[in-house]
Amino acid sequence: MRIPFDALEITPFQRRVYEAVLQIPHGQVTTYKWLGLSIGCASPRAIGQALRRNPLAPEVPCHRIVSSNARIGGFAGETDGPEITKKLRLLAAEGVLFKDGKLADPSRIYT
Fold it and tell me: Are 4 and 39 in contact (CB under 8 A)?
């Protein structure tokens, strides 16, 4: 599927973030930090803000980004409640499970 980035009102930084997210394989996750470093950005917070504004979710699978400590992290600008439940459900559908709030299988981390 071709993503219509040119038709969207996004910044060049957001585009770099979304293009990097597209590289994460189905059934795997990566961290905000790793994603940032992969595009030359040292700010996981900036990565999170770009993902919060993702207009193409779930086609650009921002649900595949977790905290560096292998905890679920945020989703759609939230850190708990129904958005996190949705993120957990999307990841579970890909075989990525969490136990006691932490990634159950560390081999699922993509780097």
Answer: no
Q: What's the pLDDT score for residue 3? A: 81
Enumerate residues 6+ apart whose C-beta is below 8 A from 54.
Answer: 18, 21, 60, 62
How far is residue 52's CA from residue 47's CA, in Å, rounded to a whole number? 9
Tokens of 34: 């790793």
Q: Which strand (E) or helix (H) includes residue 98?
A: strand 98-99
Judge whether 41 counts as a catalytic residue: no
Average pLDDT over residues 40-54: 95
d(CA 6, CA 85) in angstroms, rounded, equals 31
> Which has the closest alpha carbon to 34: 73, 66, 58, 61?
66
- Split at pLDDT 50, 70, 90, the class of 48 is very high
Question: Which residue in 10, 17, 60, 62 is the catalytic one?
Answer: 62
CA-based nearest residue to 45, from 22, 4, 5, 13: 13
pLDDT grade, residue 100 (50/70/90)?
very high
This model's pTM is above 0.70: yes
